[in-house]
Amino acid sequence: MAKLNSTKNKKKGYLNSMDDSQFYTMVITGFLIVLLIIYYTQNHNESFINYNNYNNQYFSLQDKDLKILNHNYQPLDITNQKNKIHYLYLTGGFDSSFRLCEMLINENKIVQPIYVSLVLDNDCVTEETCDKLWLRRNRKEEKKAMTKIFNKLKERYPKVKKLLLPLKEINQPITDNQFNLEFEKLFYSNNLWPKKRKKHQYLFLAKYAFYHKKHIDIGVLGIHHKSKFAKFLKKNLVKIYNGPHLNYEINDKSHPIGYLNFPLYGRSKEDLLEKAKKHNYHDILTLTWSCWFPKNGKPCQVCPMCKERIVTHPIEN
After folding, report:
1. pLDDT digits (tens, 9 = 90+) for 268-299
2. Which residues pair with 246 in a beta bridge?
3. DSSP alpha helices (H): ranges in the chain?
4. Nearest-5° angle of CA 73, CA 76, CA 80?
5. pTM
6. Which of 57, 174, 227, 292 can pair with 303 through a Cys bridge, CB separation 3.0 to 4.6 Å?
7. Domain match, 273 and 233 both
8. Which residue range(s) make up the domain with 271?
9. Per-residue pLDDT tens over the stretch 123-132
């Protein structure tokens, strides 16, 4: 009888031991599952690759990392919330230069202009080594135009010396095939861009903004109102206000172009010129450069940008 009780006690102890082991196993497993859920949520909260934890080596605001084309910059305390920085893709062309003036003069914003000198039209590495016909060959003229515009703004508007940050030039690509795949899936497969354009500048501009989670203004005019891209913008853009100042952004931040702002949406070049005349900076827009294929520093007069120009090029003044 005693031996039977001893056997029962051993079995009972063994079962208790098994219960404890199973309990701890379940606790540990549950803990690991929670950790996995947290990790997945934090690292997959976009519809594709997330870059929130990336070391932004391409997007430093330190003066030592900037390629400065405009001088006499007087730094501000950008840690002050009222001194929020607003980002703008600048080319020295009519549209983006108008937006620069509007942000500085009309809206009193601190502006970080960004100039992308990479070849964005095709797969060429540099402008100098490319023998393809479709390549914008106006970087020298664009840089000259931006320098003239910066100098004129500072000369006429003293406040600009504090509001205009040194130009940041982007000359390094971002390799990310996953982003490219998603971009092509949403744009090329849906014919939002013309099929003849195998590579579009907005791929990199969208990628750069998304990569660094920075809202960047972009000058987009001349979109045909019946095009699929125009319909896409009409459906997906939402109004945002900074005080009385209106801007437009994509309502879905997980979209590849979700960090591009479209402040000129719904306006024409004539609308921009009219506002510039009203506020007396229309002459600054004559310093801009639009021609894609200049010849000996002069506009070609036949490219799409020359034909759309509504003010004279600097060489013609």
Report:
1. 999 999 999 999 999 999 999 999 889 888 99
2. 241
3. 2-43, 94-101, 139-156, 160-163, 177-186, 201-212, 228-236, 269-278, 304-308
4. 160
5. 0.72
6. 292
7. yes
8. 63-316
9. 555 555 555 5
